[in-house]
Amino acid sequence: EAQVTQNPRYLITVTGKKLTVTCSQNMNHEYMSWYRQDPGLGLRQIYYSMNVEVTDKGDVPEGYKVSRKEKRNFPLILESPSPNQTSLYFCASKARTSGSLGGELFFGEGSRLTVL
Amino acid sequence: AQSVAQPEDQVNVAEGNPLTVKCTYSVSGNPYLFWYVQYPNRGLQFLLKYITGDNLVKGSYGFEAEFNKSQTSFHLKKPSALVSDSALYFCAVSSPGGYNKLIFGAGTRLAVHP
After folding, report:
1. CA atoms within 13 A on the CB side of A9
2. Cβ distance of A33 and B100 shorter than 8 Å
3. Which of A39, A64, A104, B44 could form a disulfide with B36 if both were Cys (CB 3.0 to 4.6 A apart)?
4. Cis bond before residue A8 (omega within 30° of 0)
5. Number of helices (H) and strands (E), helices first, in chain A?
6. Rounded-to-integer distance, Cα A52 and Cα A32, Å
7. Quick check: helix, strand or coil at residue A55?
8. How confident is the model at residue A97 (pLDDT cuts 50, 70, 90)?
9. Residue A110 in 3-state DSSP?
10. A83 and A94 in contact (C-beta within 8 Å)?
11. Nearest CA to B8 among B95, B111, B114?
12. Model confidence over B47-79: pLDDT tens digits?
């Protein structure tokens, strides 16, 4: 089954304690992206990756890091989490095929993070 | 700059009645427009998209959307609502060359009452 898998789904942590949210897709997609969802703000892009070893900032990258060492994985790293990073996080992927600028995103189930 | 507006936080409709969820956009050039749906505790699911061609686009679960270039709108519609359609709906836009840039609206919660 084609899917994007995120872990953990739920996490409560404390300020300053480094954490990683993993994301893995089994569709051989080149493009992967992280979003955060906050009430009234919709989804905002944090980072994206066009392919292995190629990453770039989205609209709200501050406080986050990513890496893309393998095509299927795109972990989101919070080096020193703060309460304003409490949010619902989504990983998404899509194929980068020729002429497919309009390809749809496939989303994971989300990771709800609370930073105390 | 690209932007998307969903003017209604919530839409209430009775089961069996037609529904409309509104979306307007601002983008330079020809837009690529999308609708996604989010059910409780789930990720977003793709519903439909407009890239080019017919202004009326049909998608999953009986939904359709009409692209109106003069009004810069892409409203989501369904002729007969089901209780199971109750969810959070997001409109999104990107522009040619903006492959990596999909801008989402704030979302509209659809509540279908029996």
Report:
1. 7
2. yes
3. B44
4. yes
5. 0, 11
6. 10
7. strand
8. low
9. coil
10. no
11. B111
12. 999 988 889 999 999 999 999 999 999 999 999
